[in-house]
Specification:
This protein is mainly β. It is 0% helix and 49% strand. Strand 1 and strand 2 form a beta hairpin. It comes from candidate division WOR-3 bacterium 4484_100. This is Secretion system C-terminal sorting domain-containing protein.
Length: 328
């Protein structure tokens, strides 16, 4: 369905209504056209299909097949645009995470290649985002000998080569699922669900280096949460997910995780007890001697000696508020 800038809905139209099931669409805009990819079951197993759509809703092309078209299911496609061409990623049963480039006209470029070979998983739900010079692909899987699911990532060049080793983004005693990624202009941010309850996130630099430890995105109440997704503005991330309450699923979100390094923010004072900045941040400039209050993202005064990784705000000299990101 198309929507005007004023929020009025326009007529919806058919992108693909072929025989059997078409599911899990993902879309990107290339500057001239939209490219839509999906998993298509019209040949009894799922394969990855795509088509080009004009901004006016025209579909000048028929379905183009991206995967091998043979063998086991191909599912959960995602797509990103690097300014010249698109990279589509998907999960291939018994083969792992695969990918293929397509041009701005929606035509396949080169051949299918493998980003992460098959381990013990069938459905890895890859997600992709383009940064300054590279793509980052994230997914979840269970490694041989492992007893739960973890989140991994791989940096990919604009030529389609793996850069460096796979990154272990999230692991631990609980399983991690449903990883999604976006780029904020400087770093990637990955979100996932922890077991069935909590939503967590972690930053990765544009050149593929893990930053600190995971941070909690949702609160700690024991509600089931699924399918997180996210986008970045110039000041913060919007992270949304499905949450189960009173017999039904609803959509919840969080905009408390900031992007960048805004120096001045507003918050509310709870008490006047002061702490020295050196108690929580190392390697301060020589001679720095500011005293300040520390608040969490909800505006509550907190003890700097007990901070876990996350985002906080420091009130410096009673009149300036600085953002602080604790990463380990």
């Amino acid at each position: 369905m198309r929507v005007t800038p004023q929020g009025d809905t326009l007529n919806s139209f058919i992108i693909c209504d072929a025989y059997s099931v078409q599911t899990h669409p993902s879309v990107v805009f290339t500057g001239n056209n939209y490219i839509v990819v999906w998993a298509d079951n019209r040949s009894s197993v799922y394969h990855i299909a795509e088509t080009k759509i004009t901004p006016q809703g025209g579909i000048p092309d028929t379905t183009v097949w991206l995967g091998s078209g043979i063998g086991d299911d191909e599912e959960d496609p995602d797509i990103a645009f690097d300014g010249n061409r698109c990279l589509v990623v998907w999960s291939k049963e018994n083969l792992g995470v695969q990918a293929r480039f397509i041009d701005t006209l929606g035509q396949p470029v080169d051949t299918v290649f493998t980003i992460a070979p098959f381990t013990t998983t069938t459905y890895t739900s890859p997600s992709i985002s383009f940064g300054l010079n590279n793509y980052l692909v994230v997914w979840y899987d269970r490694r041989p000998g492992g007893d739960d699911w973890d989140v991994y990532a791989q940096l990919i060049s604009m030529q389609g080569s793996n850069i460096g080793e796979q990154l272990t983004v999230a692991t631990g005693v609980n399983s991690q699922y449903d990883a999604r990624v976006t780029f904020d202009g400087s770093n990637y941010f990955v979100v996932w669900r922890e077991a069935n309850y909590d939503i967590y996130g972690r930053w990765i630099t544009g050149d593929g280096v893990l930053i600190g430890s995971p941070v909690r995105v949702s609160n700690s109440t024991a509600f089931y949460r699924y399918q997180p997704t996210l986008a970045a503005s110039d000041i913060n991330y919007l992270i949304a997910w499905s949450e189960y309450h009173a017999g039904q699923f609803d959509i919840y979100g969080n905009v408390d995780i900031p992007v960048g390094t805004n120096e001045r923010c507003s918050t509310r004072r709870i008490q006047q007890k002061k702490y020295r900045l050196s108690t929580i941040i190392r390697n301060l400039p020589k001679g720095f001697d500011a005293k300040y209050n520390i608040y969490d993202i909800s505006g509550r005064l907190v003890d700097p000696h007990t901070l876990s990784p996350g985002v906080y705000f420091a009130e410096v000299n009673d009149d300036e508020v600085r953002k602080i990101v604790i990463i380990r």
